[in-house]
Backbone:
């Protein structure tokens, strides 16, 4: 994690592309690419994750210049990031292969321009800006969304198909774009964490941790050890709930009604345990800059007992599920993400780890209490929906292990303050946390005691674009399994 | 094998609302003003620092009041002034009017009774077969989880004759989450218009009721009331499954009087389901 005073213009836009490709050739991956409106123009920031942690490259596109050389032709993972920059700031990445609106289709002169003082009061998406789709002979487009069957978040999938196969899929995120990053601006960090919790509601704790760590880096605050343990405890409960949610959706898709009910019950009990600890079933209001608000409302021994009971019943159901052939047949070789593609994109989270990846921020760039608790990373090479499920099942087991360790440690540590003094200082810092969906990355800048720019990059945004890649040979009825096995949140992706 | 596994742990389903449920009673709701002596006044300057979303204001006699429709349950006021603010508890968190979420209440019981009677007349025909449609208008994703939870064996809303439907043409109740993202405004309006009458709209969650912490934003409204007419207002960030269940029963006038939030339901023979 890194802290700095302000934007350090370490690259010019013209050589940003070369700097980024050099880093990627050296084994790094593009973790984020975003813009910030600045007095001097537009600062384009690339975050590169490498073996030595996160490297930040800032390049200035001087005011008046409306175009820069696109990174996407050389770095495919920049595909959505540059579309986002185009939507929010109106600059054109020259040479981008498909510069369609993604987050905000508009032709108006007013753009959100995060980082700039003030901004438009209201922007309505203009569907006329969206291209009408060109289709080949016999091809047609099935629009799926934004209002879909079942209780789902709003997104539109455009399935381009000649009948049953899915040769191409397109996604539109703008329906539920909420302008989260712009909303951070002008907030005090103590309020900002409440918004971070709601940037991606099912990954509340991970977002709150990543945001607060950035604020703490700027302030130079060290979080008390018991607070780090409590953060870890909640983060792992959140992982359990999210992974169980994926299993519920997969079982539901396969029509296994008893399995759906059983895992739905387990998920409910995880949420209730989180609620008993903190008062919020999603662990909201726990993590604050400097530490945590309160100790868990259950004794460590009670947490251990609840976790033990849950794990016992859950493992029996997992064993049965993983022996149900009719279920496994739906997942095997469904939605395969080739390891080479996963590496090229820098896929994060269970999706990346199911395609040969081994990156887990809890282990490679540890934070909270993970450094001393020890995290095992689970990985598979098949890259299909089954591999993604297997990775999650391994992670459920390791989450229980971490919960036990954290509760044991909490039992042993002397009671002390749970919140260190966190004097808000001016500056800028980058921080991360491993959400159930993968790494979330925050870049926070504070001036005059308030947030002036907060980049919140969810794992969902980084990974969702990979849905383009995984439909080789799959048919329409595989779609629900592929979507569920990705396990991403539209709220996190749409910003 | 799965059939046997389904029998392993007996019946997991709550009996609520027919029987009390401990978890339902303990579920945390938005902040509320504790009944106390009038000396518990909070100065105007202090009020502003107590709530990050401006849900707390002062009435004419400078007593603090909480707009639960804006409250995001962050707990700051409860932590800073535990003598004045506390948590509400239990599932009955929804109101039939937007102002009904302001505590202490400022609405006259008569006007609420008239609204309740009008809703009762509309929903009487739905009886015990009610079809639900959900639309996400910019939620953070947690509300969807809590609505989905109604289908798990613990809540199992099928026992109450409620079912989710894919088509708005078959839907009686529209549950809307999120503050009303601009991109969803047309889709939400079209879904509402596609539903047959009588129809009921429930704003699920503080974002849907009053915009929550995401508003004001260039990309959302401050609540879905700006897009479709709302009948039942349910705060919470997110509201718990029990609170959502109670809001559904409130919309259908099937919430038992014993657990009801207002004296409205004492209104005689027209109430309840025959």
Residues:
């Amino acid at each position: 994690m890194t802290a700095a005073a302000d934007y350090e213009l370490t690259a010019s836009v013209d050589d940003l592309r070369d700097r980024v490709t050099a880093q990627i050739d050296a084994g790094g991956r593009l973790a984020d690419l975003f813009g910030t409106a600045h007095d001097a123009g537009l600062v384009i920031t690339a975050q590169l994750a490498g073996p030595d942690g996160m490297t930040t490259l800032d390049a200035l596109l001087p005011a008046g210049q409306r175009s820069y050389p696109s990174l996407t032709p050389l770095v495919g993972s920049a595909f959505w990031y540059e579309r986002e920059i185009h939507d929010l700031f109106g600059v054109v990445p020259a040479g981008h292969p498909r510069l369609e609106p993604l987050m905000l289709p508009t032709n108006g002169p007013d753009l959100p321009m995060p980082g700039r003082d003030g901004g438009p009061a209201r922007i309505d998406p203009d569907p006329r800006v969206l291209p009408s789709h060109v289709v080949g002979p016999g091809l047609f487009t099935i629009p799926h969304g934004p209002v879909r069957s079942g209780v789902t978040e709003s997104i539109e999938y455009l399935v381009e198909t000649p009948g049953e196969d899915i040769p191409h899929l397109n996604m539109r995120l703008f329906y539920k774009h909420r302008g989260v990053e712009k909303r951070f601006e002008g907030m005090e960090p103590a309020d900002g964490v409440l918004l971070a919790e709601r940037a991606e509601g099912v990954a509340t704790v991970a977002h709150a941790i990543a945001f607060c760590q950035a604020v703490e880096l700027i302030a130079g605050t060290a979080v008390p050890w018991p607070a780090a343990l409590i953060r870890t405890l909640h983060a792992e409960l959140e992982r359990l709930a999210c992974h169980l949610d994926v299993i519920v959706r997969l079982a539901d898709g396969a029509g296994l009604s008893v399995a759906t009910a059983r895992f739905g019950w387990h998920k409910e009990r995880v949420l209730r345990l989180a609620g008993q600890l903190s008062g919020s079933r999603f662990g909201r209001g726990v993590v604050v800059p400097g530490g945590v608000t309160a100790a868990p409302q259950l004794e460590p021994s009670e947490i251990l007992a609840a976790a033990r009971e849950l794990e016992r019943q859950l493992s029996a159901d997992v064993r049965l599920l993983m022996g149900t052939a009719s279920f496994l047949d739906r997942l095997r070789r469904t939605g395969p993400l080739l390891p080479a593609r996963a590496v090229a994109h820098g896929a994060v989270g269970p999706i990346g780890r199911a395609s040969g990846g081994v990156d887990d921020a809890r282990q490679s760039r540890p934070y909270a209490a993970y450094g001393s608790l020890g995290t095992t990373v689970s990985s598979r090479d098949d890259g299909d929906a089954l591999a993604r499920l297997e990775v999650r099942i391994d992670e459920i087991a390791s989450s229980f292990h971490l919960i036990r360790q954290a509760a044991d440690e909490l039992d042993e540590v002397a009671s002390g303050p749970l919140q260190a003094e966190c004097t808000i200082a001016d500056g800028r810092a980058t921080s991360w946390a491993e959400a159930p969906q993968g790494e979330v990355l925050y870049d926070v800048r504070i001036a005059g005691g308030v947030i002036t720019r907060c980049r919140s990059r969810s794992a969902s945004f980084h990974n969702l674009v990979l849905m383009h890649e995984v439909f080789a040979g799959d048919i329409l009825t595989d779609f629900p399994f592929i979507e569920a096995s990705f396990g991403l949140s539209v709220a996190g992706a749409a910003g | 094998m799965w059939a046997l596994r389904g029998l392993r742990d007996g019946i997991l389903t709550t009996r609520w609302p027919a029987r009390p449920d401990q978890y339902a009673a303990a579920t945390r709701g938005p902040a509320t003003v504790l009944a106390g002596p009038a000396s518990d006044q909070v100065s105007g300057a202090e009020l502003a620092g107590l709530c990050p979303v401006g849900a707390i204001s002062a009435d004419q006699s400078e007593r603090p009041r909480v707009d639960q429709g804006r409250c995001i349950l962050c707990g700051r006021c409860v932590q800073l002034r535990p003598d004045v603010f506390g948590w509400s508890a239990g599932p009955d968190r929804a109101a039939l009017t937007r102002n009904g979420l302001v505590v202490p209440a400022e609405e006259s019981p008569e006007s609420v009774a008239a609204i309740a009677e009008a809703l009762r007349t509309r929903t009487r025909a739905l009886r015990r077969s009610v079809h639900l449609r959900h639309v996400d208008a910019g939620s953070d994703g947690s509300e969807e989880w809590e609505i989905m939870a109604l289908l798990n064996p613990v809540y199992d809303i099928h026992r109450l004759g409620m079912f989710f439907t894919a088509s708005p043409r078959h839907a009686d109740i529209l549950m809307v989450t999120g503050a009303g993202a601009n991109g969803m405004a047309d889709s939400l309006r079209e879904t509402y218009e596609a539903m047959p009458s009588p129809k009921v709209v429930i704003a699920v969650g503080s974002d849907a009721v009053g915009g929550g912490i995401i508003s004001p934003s260039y990309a959302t409204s401050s609540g879905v009331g700006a897009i479709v007419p709302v009948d039942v207002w349910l705060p919470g960030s997110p509201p718990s499954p029990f609170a959502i269940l109670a809001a559904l029963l409130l919309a259908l006038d099937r919430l038992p009087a014993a657990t009801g939030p207002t004296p409205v339901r004492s209104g005689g023979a027209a109430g309840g389901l025959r």
